[in-house]
Task: structure prediction
Amino acid sequence: MIGALVGVIILILIILAVPNLSYFLSILSSLNGTTGGQYTSTFHVQGGNGSISQNPSIFNSTLSISYPSDYATLRNFSLNLINRDRTAHDLSPVGVSQIQSGQQHADSMLKYGYFSHWDVQGLKPYMRYSILGGTGFVEENVAFEFTTFPTYSTVSSVERAITNLEYQMVNNDSYCCQNGHRDNILNQFHNAVSIGIAYNTTDVFFVEDFVTDYAGINSPIVSGGDTVNLVGTPSQSLDPSSIQVFYDGFPHSITTQDIRSNFSGPYDQGTFIGGVLPPCQSLFSCSSYQGAITVQASTWSVGSSSLNIRFSLGDFINKYGSGVYTLYLIQGSTSNPEYLTSISVFVS
Result:
């Protein structure tokens, strides 16, 4: 690429060491979808220059996803790079997530010409992941490479860009991003990744939505008004201790200029508003979230091959009203928690 200006931009997700929770009641009315991934996907193959003609936004219960014609090759190439890095650090490899959040977001960035964890609908990564059917815990890496003249016209040229972006995230991440990308790639708990790749002749967008998905939670999540049902068949023995709830205001459309000006950095988990704990049998000393809402689950049954947790979100909704409630089922110590879910529920 003699004579070309080549740029690499990387954003990170910073995971805050604070409680997280969210709640699924009714999906965003403007999205016209339903919880639990009840979306009809329409697949399109991008043209030779990687342009996207379909609207990649999530709406009308239909999602249009455009894949490069060489997506399978590029996805497998990317997965091999990720697992090479994980193996080098004595970590188990990750598989491919069936949730299409990575590609949907890559399509959106290429289509509308922005670079951010937020999208033009005002959705954060955990919101997109939940809307598209994800019930595990997601952490997002996004990266971008560009040139000043047409460069990305072959599989090998895009593979070189992806190789460079992956290398920067693993080896040079402290310079820009406090090793947030690296930590996501090398997280011991992650077992899958949703890979997004969208490009034209001058731009390559690369998305890694890393997933921790062991709980095997079934849909629907919400039933009977405000009752949340986390019911599933875990793939390994779990011992969750609590659910943390975070709140975001209702998403709204964001212009690409506003994204560039105000939404170009890492995203947070919203505002911590309380949590859910197992039923307390004591009459005198039950645990609580100090200064926040505490709800005791009506059912909290976790075995080696079953999960059944039920509780009401009514107390949260009565205080905070419409918005997005995200539920983080966690296990482990408070200083080093393992997040099992990042389920977002939209309440209108």
Q: What stands out?
A: Residues 71-88 form the longest helix (18 residues). The first strand starts at residue 7 and ends at 11. The helical segments are 71-88, 101-112, 125-131, 155-171, 173-177, 180-185, 256-262, 314-320.
